[in-house]
Amino acid sequence: DGSDIVPVFNQYVGFGDMVAANEVTAMLARKSKGVRLRMASSIEFADLRKAPTLLIGAITNRWTLELQQNWRFRFVRTPEARLVIVDTQTDQQWSIPSKDDGSAPDDYIVASRIRNSVTGGTLMVAAGLKQFGTEAAGRLLTDPDQLGLILRKLPKGWENRNLQVVLHARVI
């Protein structure tokens, strides 16, 4: 009945989250920028106000879910407990079929840069519906060629506005 299950907090990290954190940390180290990695469950809102923040993961990061109320693209749990990405302007949804073993042939990514967020500063998000998308989001943010392909297609003046993109990732 589950009564013997004991939750263990702050000891495990999803593989996709770990890869994304590693990619971003390595990129910033190459640029001689300091990084402080923290588990989302041990961060208070006041901590988010101290520096620009990158939130990695959706369901693995409570702050991604809590801070998304005013975003166009949001992560939402369906009544069937599936995670989907919803466009709040058009009601379009992106989802992936779930297999019994947790694998998926595809994933979807939300990459965001929220200027002047409710934290008082810049907030960035790299998250997928599953670990594959979060891993891909971390790789995207640190690959200037791939990121450049996206940024060159944006309308003039995007640099001074909030930015959110939803991308499809094929899992290989």
Question: What's a quick, concise take on this entry?
Answer:
Helices cover 26% and strands 23% of the residues. It is an alpha+beta fold.
Question: Your description of this structure?
Answer:
By secondary structure, the chain is an alpha+beta fold. It has helices at residues 15-30, 45-48, 62-66, 131-141, 144-151, and strands at residues 53-56, 73-77, 83-87, 93-94, 106-114, 123-128, 163-170. The model has no long low-confidence stretch (mean pLDDT 89).
Topology (SSEs and partners):
Blueprint: H1 15-30, H2 45-48, E1 53-56, H3 62-66, E2 73-77, E3 83-87, E4 93-94, E5 106-114, E6 123-128, H4 131-141, H5 144-151, E7 163-170
Parallel strand pairs: 1-6
Antiparallel strand pairs: 2-3, 3-4, 5-6, 5-7
Helix pairs in contact: 1-4
As a percent range, the share of strand residues is 15-25%
Give the terminus-to-terminus CA distance. Answer: 37 Å
Mean pLDDT: 89
The rounded Rg comes to 16 Å
* Computed structural class: alpha+beta
Helix tally?
5
| Biggest sheet record | 4 strands, mixed
SSE ordering: HHEHEEEEEHHE
Features:
single chain; 172 residues; alpha+beta; four-stranded mixed β-sheet; three-stranded antiparallel β-sheet; 23% strand
